[in-house]
Design goal:
With 106 residues, the chain is mainly alpha-helical. The chain contains five helices and no strands.
Length: 106
């Protein structure tokens, strides 16, 4: 599923694949669901990374916070008996909507 999302080869190594070359098209496909300021910041970061410069964004803390929030939400849904998507389905959460509506809608 991961390889399909990023349009990577179905099998084999990906060490020589371009992070920017595969991530930028994904951002483009999701752009209508992402805040324009976020898209602009991501485009700027990806432009800086085109020459091999490490990612300038502090994504580790944001990513771990998002995963923790999603995990707690899913645990609460399970405990409440609410539906939860299972593999192989992917859950895409708009954190802007989650923060204003207070829940992930399935």
């Amino acid at each position: 599923m991961f390889r399909k999302i990023f349009k990577l080869p179905e099998t084999g190594p990906v060490a020589n694949e371009s992070y920017v070359g595969h991530f930028a098209p994904l951002v483009d496909r999701l752009a209508e669901r992402i805040d324009p300021q976020v898209c602009a910041a991501m485009a700027k970061a990806l432009t800086l990374m085109e020459d091999g410069t490490p990612c300038p964004a502090p994504h580790v803390s944001a990513g771990s916070t998002a995963v923790a929030s999603l995990s707690v939400t899913l645990i609460a849904r399970i405990l409440n008996g609410d539906p939860v998507l299972e593999a192989p389905y992917m859950l895409v959460a708009n954190m802007g909507t989650v923060s204003t509506e207070g829940a992930i809608k399935i």
